[in-house]
Queue: 4 jobs
Job 1
Amino acid sequence: MDPVLRIDSLKKYYGRGENETRAIDGITFQVVPGEFLGIMGASGSGKSTLLNCIAAVIRPTSGTIEMKGQDIGRLSGKKLADYRGKEMGYLFQNFELIDNLTGKENILLPVSLHGGKENAGSERFDKLASYLEIEDILDKFPSQMSGGEKQRIAAARALILNPGLILCDEPTGALDSKNAKALMSKLLGLNQEEGATILMVTHDSNAASFCSRIMFIQDGKIFHELRKEDGEDQKDFYDRILKVLAQLGGGSSNVL
């Protein structure tokens, strides 16, 4: 199976000489279709820089990032905009909804910006609204929604164009434990039922336990990797995650 995403010898350095910071220092990995990959690491470990490189927000110092076999470092203009808008879906910690747009309008914003056939009555829109249980809040503005509702609207927006990869940056960071678990259950369902490919940066070991694989990053390098074994339940995987976090200098879900 060809990977959706291929990262090869990726480096991102800031500064020079004694002031040089190696945010990413030679990372190599692949993401296959339908995978749910988590990335964990202490603050400053390089995980957010990695996510920003994949999103083409910042350019790496060296190395390559290929999306479906295409080197994104060679993209510019409309092709780069299409990559960011159509191939990637984004789910952020602070929702990033537009305050003066309704939930429905926020979801359809990528369609307006990047084109597509989806609308408020399309099969995909209706399916996402039903699955994410947001049908009753589509006409509300973000100020009228709870944090969990905002994040489910944001999830629908990230998925509306059926992107090749969904990038999640601390998606449970602004949610209480109940809403965090509900959101992760929905993302897992989309991964398993729709084959959505998800790459998630998280500090939360509970959220990470929903993933099928986790990469732990330290000092810009891959420190360790865990895969959920066939038949392994979520609690056992969670316990294994905590053991790795303890090696990184902690052990609780809030240490990273």
Job 2
Amino acid sequence: MIDVQSLAMRYGPVVALDGVSFQANPGEILGLLGPNGAGKTTAMRILTTYLYPSSGTAKVDGIDILENPLEVRKRIGYLPETLPLYADMQVEEYLNFVGKARELSSKSLQERLGWVREACQLKSVWKHLLCELSKGYGQRVGLAQALIHDPKVLILDEPTSGLDPIQIIGIRSLIKSLAKEKTIIFSTHILQEVEVLADRIVIINEGKLVAQGTKRELAEKVLAQGQSAKELSLEDIFIQLLAPRKTVNA
């Protein structure tokens, strides 16, 4: 469903991505993990055709992001780190606007509005102005706009940022249920989110791919003598993979 090949992004002398390749399969939740500044957001912006890479490319649902970006955008729902919210609009008004921009028919739009209102738990703030919302409710509206057109692919940048524990559990449950029929990539620097949600993990640091695989596969890369994969937490794995003196093939 998503095939990333040798993506590189340079801003003058600064290398944000350096030849990164990975895949995400249909029905899979892929966690993009790395410290702040690792290149996760840059990779997502390239996949959504917001940025044009210095080199390399990617395909989404078989469509090249460089050759046909408009068709790629139709297949993607994107929740960026900075939410695209218009403060003077009501929640319903904003999502209605997004649905029309996505060229949904009147009937489909009403069905999708009802669905995202329930799925993202927005009923209590449906008529509120966006400027009146807490950060947590703003995040839910951001997720709703990513889902309004029922995309095949979801790309989520820090999807649980600003949510309280109950809201986080709800969003996790929603993401897992959506994965039954969608491909989902989400980025985070929070290890617990990846451990709970991701089927596979891609670790990026300083623009480079460090490792990728299931948690067990990553654990096997860093096992010390006498250890078993079950004994290693994701935190242990992450620290060892990013240790400067340790080199691990992706």
Job 3
Amino acid sequence: MNPQVIYNGISSEDMGLTVTKLPDFHRAARRVAQTEIPGRSQPIIQDEGGYEAYQTTMEINANGVPLRDIYEWLRGEGWLISSDEEDYQAYVYLHSQIDDERFRVGDECYDTIKVQMLVEPYLREVGEHAITLTSARTFRGRGHDPALPEITVTGSGDITLMVNGVSVLIDGLNGSITIDSEAGIAYTGSGDSMAWAGEKVTLVDGWPTLKPNRATNLVNWSGNVSRVVIQPKWRYL
């Protein structure tokens, strides 16, 4: 199979394009502060937590596809899958200028396109499965760093949800509520019916996180809960 990428659900193959250089996904640089001390040969390194986004490039042959169609596809931001790591996806920003170079084969004009992208530091699993619980349970973590999950609780009344000992108090639930640790929000409904519901949620020790690297995660609760659905959002370097 020829190299290809899938960006926001549309593949380069579907577009009729040939990828001549796949984007390189690197292990991102750790975010640290470095302080030089007079008279000391080694700097003091302070870990600030997290990793830096980085730049990478891919190159595409247009194969006669109109440039405007390609520009329409390669814009904005979203998930990108590269055929050399098809089990993982990266969140990328395609806000940089796209360079193209035109060349001629016989009477046909073609273009080589260089696409710069900003890549968020963590890769995520393609087709990651949600974890559905109807009673308290433990499960093994995945990935390399603590995950910031999206947790949907269905039930009624006052509920205390506990994730690895971190408590989330939910007041007067009637139906379902979603606690999204990555976005730092709580909401009910979805799509056009989504409504913010932060007033129903009290965080006792911050947003819930999941332990990586096969560590044991425990999710339990008190109150009238019929189901808890967890989208882990495991994070890989």
Job 4
Amino acid sequence: MSQSQLPLLIGIGSRIRKSPYYESDLKYGVTGFTVYNKMYLPTGFSGPEKEYESLINDVTFGDFAAERQIEISGPDAYDFIRYIQPRNLEKCEIGFCKYILLTDMNGGIINDACLLRLEENRFWISPGDGDVILWLQGIAINSGMDVSIHEPDVSPLQISGPKSGKLIQKLFNGEHDDLGYYKARQTSLEEIPMVIARTGWSGELSYELYLQDGKLGNKLFELVYKAAQEFKGRVIAPNTIRTIEGGILSYGSDFGREHNPFTIGLGRLVDVDQEIDFIGKSALKEIKEKGLTEKLVGIELEGDPIIKVPENFWSVKKNDKKVGRVSRAFFSPRLQKNIALAIVDIEYAEEETHVVVESSNGDLKSKVVTLPWFKADKETHLD
């Protein structure tokens, strides 16, 4: 076997943290890991296609503990939360969850995150991959605000799919049937402490069990595994196919600090007219007034089915001129099409614009389409 044919492996060692569900990942057939927030994150079990079919038809669950939580507490926690991001949170009550973007002084995106308000002045931020905790601690040092910022013992286990509401109903004997979309509450399961939230990174109906005792991770995983069998449950990793279909973005891949909220279609998370100040307010106001120079779009690509996520950005070209880049692409079984997420120059962002994508499969004729292909499912399907 030549060097180029050797399987690619990731070294497992003490330098990278293992999640509380790591032994369960091994037990149920994990086929690979990546490193996300300095923790091993599963990349597959039965393959993206099988995992996708279970995700859109039945129920799935898996180790999402690499969504490391950042707890912000103290007398000025609410004011601090409002200062670090541009969304208007005047109506963010206790028990609410909000999707937010953290921006820098130039309006660039530090990361995206799910915000949970647990108490009057106690919040969790669940960010994408990156050193968000260091960014926030750095801001806090000279902010003049009385806040404490640390990483708590919290590890999400995600449950997703059209039958996930029924699985939650079975696990908790109907206690959380009334839990609304993007709401959270403290709970427990067989004396395992956790916060349950109607959140998740999947594109389907999702819940996250935010485990609050890392020693009990494998116990929780077994409880969910056994209960899920009635609903044809499957252990999965984050699913590329469904997240592309839903236009659900991945920080560091689909967008980064060089992009602003308006470029990626999330201007709704920016309120430059609110009275309070926040990081990047003047820059974001100027960006909004000037208009977009580039935009996140969907792309449909011709050619053989794409069954491997691009290892590098693929160039998008028009008349041999580079006009953008594809970040993630895969074949959608439901659409019977290759689909991708891309950021392109604004003059090429209109629907039905024909372009060429330079892929690992060669140059592919492609066209721009509107996102998403399938919207997120928010119904609990308990009947």
